[in-house]
Amino acid sequence: MKNKILEEQRGFTGSDALIAVLIISLFAGLIATISYNIYISNSSVKRMSKATSYIIDVFEYIDKINYDKIGEEELISYFNNKYYYEQDGTTVKNDAEVKMKEKQEEDINTPYKAEINIIKYNQTKENTDKLDLVQEITMKVRYMLGNKEQTIEMKRVIINEEYTQ
Fold this sequence. Notes:
Elements: H1 2-8, H2 14-64, H3 72-83, E1 98-100, E2 112-120, E3 134-145, E4 148-159
Parallel strand pairs: 1-2
Antiparallel strand pairs: 2-3, 3-4
């Protein structure tokens, strides 16, 4: 009886092979999708971290300078001289990753694009007769992640400490 059963089973059939190929391709696709999602997630964390460090650097610089010197031109000049230009201030670095957009400038050809906007409280509607005591600084950093544009935006309020004492 055992000999009869062994003689009937002659190995893989075409359907067995087809099922094996389908199972392997299903899991290969699943593994590829999971790997891609992990890569995108890691890239997102790295790029978000880098963009955040650019913003923090500008905010720390603001703490070091006098309130009266805080202006868009000053901050743009500081940022671009540090990250985009060589020490001469005109030659673009070969490995420049970020540039802060200057007024009326066309789109920038770097992986990270920074923008800054300063709103003085005494220049807002109905507050023009007040002293220059408060500024709101908004900085954005944009970058591409896959096919999507990501933006990180932070705001900081600066108070003129001359008048608070």
